[in-house]
Specification:
Alpha-Beta Plaits, eight-stranded mixed beta sheet, alpha+beta, single chain, 2 domains, Nucleoside Triphosphate Pyrophosphohydrolase
Length: 230
């Protein structure tokens, strides 16, 4: 009977988290969905939550399990779940010597890293999930701390939210860059936080939906601007 191993497709802001392994030697430098073994008497869901807390210091909620189970060698089998970071949890970061680097990848970036073979069968379903999420609303802030606080508040309220670096049009590399929060929260909820933290919503003039999808380049203003209310 094979021992169950579980992996997590941590999805946020239209991207999934990939982790680069440091060991064993044959896996070092390659990428995987973070996770680990299910211990005796433990459910797969509990094992996944425990492993991510130990490896990345992050609390997650399992959304659903991805289709299929993949054999790993002669003694193990891998199941993978779609998960989201819970509430206002801290940012994931390697907490032990299992991984040395993390990357957030969009659906068109999944082939930019060298995945371990057992994880590859899950990538098509993960890409479909990322694409089905649709465009995200962007709130832009000049202060990173403001962006992080807004993202945590939105996740605490049950929405998906991620922070990424932005660039002002024409700025030099040594100048301060603003920060964007990508979220699926409704504009009215984000606007309240934007006003509180001196940021602005990135909305195309006359558009019915929030601006471009995650990862699209932006021509940003050089000063914060407000959304006009009727």
């Amino acid at each position: 009977m094979r021992t169950r191993v579980v992996g997590a497709a941590i999805v946020r802001g239209g991207r999934v988290l990939a982790a680069r392994r440091t060991r064993p030697a044959e896996a070092a430098g390659r990428w995987e969905l973070p996770g680990g073994k299910v211990e005796p008497g433990e459910t797969a869901e509990h094992a996944l939550v425990r492993e991510l807390d130990e490896e990345l210091g992050v609390d997650v909620e399992v959304v659903r399990w991805l289709a299929g189970v993949v054999p790993v060698g002669e003694r193990h089998e891998l199941a993978a779940a779609l998960v989201r970071i819970a509430g206002d949890a801290e940012e994931p970061e390697p907490r032990d010597d299992t991984h040395d680097r993390l990357r957030w990848l969009g659906p068109d970036e999944l082939d930019e890293v060298d995945w371990l073979e057992p994880d590859r069968p899950f990538l098509a379903e993960i890409a479909a999930e990322l694409r089905s999420a649709g465009p995200s609303l962007r709130a832009v802030f000049f202060d990173e701390d403001d962006a992080v606080l807004v993202a945590r508040r939105l996740r605490h309220d049950g929405y998906d939210a991620a922070v990424e670096r932005e660039r002002l049009a024409g700025e030099d590399d040594d100048e301060d860059h603003p920060w964007a929060v990508l979220t699926d929260a409704p504009a009215v909820a984000v606007e309240l936080l934007v006003d509180e933290h001196d940021g602005w919503l990135d909305l195309e003039d006359g558009a019915e939906h929030p601006g471009p999808a995650a990862g699209s380049p932006l021509d940003l203003p050089t000063q914060p601007r407000r959304i006009k209310r009727p």
